Amino acid sequence: SRRAGPSGFFLLKNKNTGKLVAGEVLRMAEEALRMSHIVKVYSNGVMANKDVTLSVNRGEIHALSGENGAGKSTLMKILFGEEQPTSGEIYINGNQVHMTSPQMAIKLGVGMVHQHFMLVPSLTVTENIIMGMEPVKGIRVDLAYARQQVEEMGKKFNLYVDPDKRVEDLTVGQKQRVEILKALFRGAKILILDEPTAVLTPQETQELFDELLHLKENGYTIIFISHKLQEIKQICDRITIIRRGVTMGVHEVASVTEQDISRLMVGRDVILNTEKSPCKPGEALVKIRNLVILDENGKRAVDGISFTLRKGEILGIAGVEGNGQTELVEAMTGMGGYTSGTIEIGGKDIRGSSVAAIRALKVAHIPEDRMTMGIAPKLSLTENMIADKLSWKKFFKNGIINRKAVRSYGEEMVDQYQVLCKSQDVSIDSLSGGNIQKVVLARELSGDPQVIIADQPTRGVDVGATEFIRKRLAEARDAGNGVILVTSDLNEVLGLSDSLLVFYEGRIAAYIKDTTSMTEEELGTYMLGIQKQTEEEIREACHEQ
């Protein structure tokens, strides 16, 4: 028998003597959340969750992992009240609840920090945090009181951000703090964090981990959704793994390796480090000289950069988001203009060229946001795969589509790129993120490109799809393509790149010729502007190519 002791401890009592047994003290874990045998079947017949059980203890950081399409997102939407389960039960602190809406979830102490921040850039930190829950004084919002609350809460949880700063002026790490504070302000005791380190530097990631550990020590419960296995190992207590809508088990993180986790996620061994042959660079494919791009406010988003991409080379571009990478990619692909300087692709100056004209120079583009720029959501897989091939006589002749040839091509691409789908005729938005990315990859790489611009190619993609995409990019480089790899995944940019540019405030802070000796921490110092190469070093390195 047991009798409750202080601080949640339990002492064993001897049945014969009735005395407490000295020294035998056990801590009984208290369950903050249980999702029991969750099933979710959509109206189109797709079964997202077949049988998922998730149990999370109070005051733990619990990892939730699985392949894209495994059912993680659906499960969290159900927990946050955005979706309703077909069957199954949800318990919060031992009480069965029915999450009918996000408002209900918030009321029950569940908060969610989405991967893409949901903040209003033009408003202050305080205004964003209190939105929808504004304290009032008479008939007016009491901003002074709200500001005081935000300031006190930030200091209490080691999440301090200047309450008066506008969100548009914050760093990515500070914006994430605001999102967490927003959830805490609404009374969240259980926090869902969706890919929280996707756009952070190593330094910002470590700061976040320190903040999460502080929340844990204060009794908060955190569900940590991530594909970064080394981070799961670093910060999480336990991990629940889902594969194809079914719980594969719950494990103490300390007792499993990264390889064990990846094997449970995808059902086979995964090569976590990309293997590639030594780089043998050839002729120049892209030459950029003194490029300047002004943003909508007249500020230099790209400030006089120069570099060369060569045949048979992967040139990585690293930097905290918002330091000119997006504007550079837009200029190179015809999606945006540039103020001065030159961009030459295949020896041709592309100033004033259309997207189609640039693609005709054998340029492939894997866009940063696959959902808005990479696909037509309601079209089928095959229709998306041939979207850039409307001039191919193989598919179209005299304006008439050769359906047999198109279908054969679609089947070949689905098989070759290992796209998991019911058929090639389903709308592409019914697929998981990783499988959508494979469709984009299939379309872009099957057009015989010479230059591949891969912008965040594995963001939000599971370890199996990540392995596949990285391998394809390495194969393209070995076949003589030039690859520009823009990524916020430092493990990826260091492991896959042959040489590396680091962007800071629209300029090149460093050019790394050999990435093999560079650490993530050292790279992070360049990304944050703590360390910089001299202009002479950068100019010499970038122009000697």
Q: How would you describe what is shown here?
A:
This protein is of the alpha/beta class. 31% of the residues lie in helices and 28% in strands.
Furnish the topology, listing elements before pairings.
Layout: E1 2-4, E2 9-13, E3 20-27, E4 31-41, E5 47-57, E6 61-66, H1 72-79, E7 87-92, E8 95-97, H2 102-107, E9 110-113, H3 125-130, E10 136-137, E11 140-141, H4 143-156, H5 172-185, E12 190-194, H6 202-217, E13 221-225, H7 229-235, E14 238-243, E15 246-252, H8 258-266, E16 284-294, E17 300-310, E18 313-318, H9 325-333, E19 340-345, E20 348-349, H10 355-359, E21 363-366, H11 370-374, H12 381-385, E22 396-397, E23 400-401, H13 403-416, H14 433-445, E24 451-455, H15 463-478, E25 482-486, H16 490-496, E26 499-504, E27 507-512, H17 520-527, H18 535-543
